[in-house]
Write a structure and sequence with these properties.
It is built from 14 helices and 21 strands. By secondary structure, it is an alpha+beta fold. The protein starts with a helix and ends with a strand.
Length: 474
């Protein structure tokens, strides 16, 4: 079919080809024309090595969770496939024993850190010991020959999926980088890119020619941080940026402006964390707060992108999300408050202007229910009673996804249930404490310039830049 179309295009460009009296000469010329049309098309789709990808973001490039640069420089024992399942990373295979109380991971041979040091089980052990302190999913980890062994007092059925998370990326010699850009340190990993330095708010990553997966197509990635969405989009339209962020509340506008947008399914859980100490140690007050929030109004702030939820996991993953009521009931909230006038509460938000607006909307809802809430700026004060935050759905497998979300808010209990009924019981018990109130599931999205090729997103909506190439690279 492709050759038929090309033949028609060739004849439309060169109509005399269709009337040649000497068939062989005519068809020979036609074949040359077809090849001239086909070869440039193939060249355009073939990835090119070289070039610098210019990325702009609002936040930092190296936070502990969701750090774009961290994932390019560091690898984990496992990685999350685009289908949300754990795939081999620095470990080629793994096996569990003793009802998931013991796991053994076999390391990939021949892997070296970016400084040339060989990856060994002892370097992995050192890195993992420092990665999560007392909140690790395991009781002990040790290197044994070319393997890494994890043991725990409780079963760890979700360990391979958890090890794909940002908390457990492997840095050289146990060096665990802190969050933020001010502590770049050596930041030596095994990933496709290595630290090229930070200058004038631009973090440069250089291709790792010795990467165990092979050299990436790009020579460099420049990540400009703390750039407003408005400035990002202006730079994209002017050709000064190749990849920029598209917040959920700007998705509709991005499509109207005909930006080339790559978006994930709803993977970012917007939730309200509620303290369980001080005045909010009263469970009735926490229940009243949960009933007072108008999720529909919050959805409007985010241009009705994503889905309203009162459960930790989205309904497509479990089928039981509808069992958790997402309806606002201000009268019931006032009833639970019981006439008590609690002291002023502080609410802080994580994220952009839409998150700030959502925080102010929640404060209005709570005021209507009899609470006095002050909204702090981004980052908040030292003590906050309420925090509006985003949690990432790292997998589309319900059991590890639920455990990952719970660990994200400090609940280290392993999720052992596998059936929807069992997972519902876990969610119901936790949400009954009203220390975390799920509100919305939102997509993550990016806009790319015309020269970017093969951009895909990971299961949690992060751009997979190690596989990107540039059309105009030489």
């Amino acid at each position: 079919m492709r050759w038929t179309v090309l033949r028609q295009v060739a004849i439309s460009k060169y109509p005399t080809l269709a009337t040649k009296t000497t068939p062989w000469r005519g068809w020979g010329t036609l074949c040359l024309v077809l090849l001239s049309l086909a070869l440039p098309a193939a060249a355009r789709t073939r990835p090119h090595y070289g070039g610098t990808l210019r990325v702009e973001i609002e936040g930092d490039a190296l936070p502990q969770h969701g750090g774009l640069a961290r994932r390019l420089m560091l690898d984990g024992l496992t990685r999350m496939g685009t289908d949300g399942t754990a795939r081999p990373g620095l470990a080629v295979r793994w096996a569990s024993e003793n009802d998931d109380h013991r796991w053994q991971f076999w390391l990939r041979p021949g892997v070296h850190f970016q400084d040339g040091t060989a990856l060994t089980s002892s370097t992995v052990e050192a890195a993992l010991i420092g990665s999560c302190g007392a909140s690790c999913p395991w009781t002990a980890v040790r290197g044994v020959g070319s393997t890494v062994v994890f043991t725990a007092d409780s079963p760890m059925p979700n360990l391979p999926a958890l090890l794909a998370g940002d908390d457990f990326l492997i840095a050289h010699a146990g060096f665990i980088p802190s969050s933020g850009l001010s502590v770049l340190g050596p930041f030596i990993g095994t990933g496709a890119f290595q630290n090229g330095g930070l200058s004038n708010g631009i973090l440069t990553l250089a291709a790792n020619d010795s990467c165990w997966e092979g050299r990436p197509f790009l020579d460099k990635i420049e990540i400009q941080v703390h750039k407003s969405i408005r400035d990002q989009w202006l730079d994209l339209s002017a050709g000064r940026a190749d990849l920029v962020e598209v917040p959920a509340d700007q998705l509709r506008r991005a499509h109207e402006q005909r930006l080339t947008v790559v978006a994930s399914p709803p993977v970012a859980l917007l939730a309200l964390a509620v303290a369980d100490s001080g005045v909010l140690g009263n469970p009735n007050l926490r229940a009243a707060i949960a009933l007072a929030v108008d999720r529909g109004a919050l959805s409007n702030i985010f241009q009705k992108q994503g889905a309203i939820t009162a459960s930790l996991l989205p309904d497509p993953l479990t089928g039981y999300s509808f069992l958790f009521s997402a309806e606002r009931d201000a009268n019931k909230a006032r009833e639970l408050r019981g006439g008590m006038t609690p002291p002023a509460l502080t609410l802080s938000t994580e994220g952009d202007a839409a998150m700030q607006l959502a925080g102010q909307r929640i404060a209005l809802d709570l005021h209507d229910a009899g609470f006095n809430v002050q909204v702090a700026g981004t980052g908040g004060s030292q003590h906050t009673d309420l925090v509006l935050l985003r949690l990432t759905l790292a997998s589309n497998q319900s059991q590890p996804a639920l455990e990952s979300i719970l660990r994200g808010v400090g609940v280290a209990t392993p999720v052992l249930e596998k059936t929807p009924a069992g997972l519902y019981r876990v969610e119901h018990e936790f949400l009954g404490t009203h220390t975390l109130i799920p509100l919305l599931y939102l997509p993550r999205a990016y806009a790319a310039g015309g020269r970017v090729r093969d951009l895909r997103l990971s299961a949690d909506g992060m751009p997979l830049l190690a596989g990107v190439s540039l059309e105009d690279a030489q």
